[in-house]
Amino acid sequence: MKINRTAKRTIEILELIASSSEELTLNDIATRLEMPKTSAFDILETLVELNMLYIKEHRLKTYAIGVKAYAIGIAYSKTSLLLNSANPILRQLSLQTGHTAFIAKENNGKLIFTLKHEPTKRIIATPEIGDETYLHSTAIGKAILAFSPHHEELIRKLQLLPLTEHTITSKVALKSELQQVKVKGYAISCREHEEHTMAIAAPIFDYNGVVSSSIGIVSLYKEGYDVEQDAQLVKEAAYKISRLLGYQG
Q1: Which of 25, 84, 131, 147 falls between 20 and 30 A from 17, CA-CA?
Q2: What is the pTM of this model?
């Protein structure tokens, strides 16, 4: 894959400034990175305009990491904290239920899987970390939709594709089910995403009380499945992770 030179230089500038123990000027940056001053100047001015950098010392015009870059770093650290905190809890949930356990988050109107643990004896094929799927047909997706502060906007943009004959394809029906999810504290997807599977999920909240992700289990559909027992385990796992993230509810 061909790497864009400007994008590469931009990242190199950010890395240099972030790692430097001394204040750097345009000349310092251009010299150390062996790039034309005009190119470095254009990139620096753009980064300042976007709040990725700021001018720390106006007389010498030295540069420092800006609030936007700091915010991106904080967002990464929160995600990293979630994954590190959740791993043992996810593993325990999988062992307790005997089912594959997932954590996933909403990304641009889709669901993206961020963590997974499979039981020793895997019965069904399941998504891999990084895979994307639909919000409306999955328990994890519905748990996020129900508790998201932006649920109205998310629902408005959704295309409720019929993946099976059991998939919810009406926004009125979806909203009604999401109200039930909020009451119960967990979501179910029964043969809605795949004809032979069912799933249970509960929301994970961050320190601001905002749903950040969702945790769930998926198994083969079978008659007489004790949903309540496994739902309680899923809710407990979600709450444990939420508390580790600073949630006070």
Answers
A1: 84
A2: 0.69
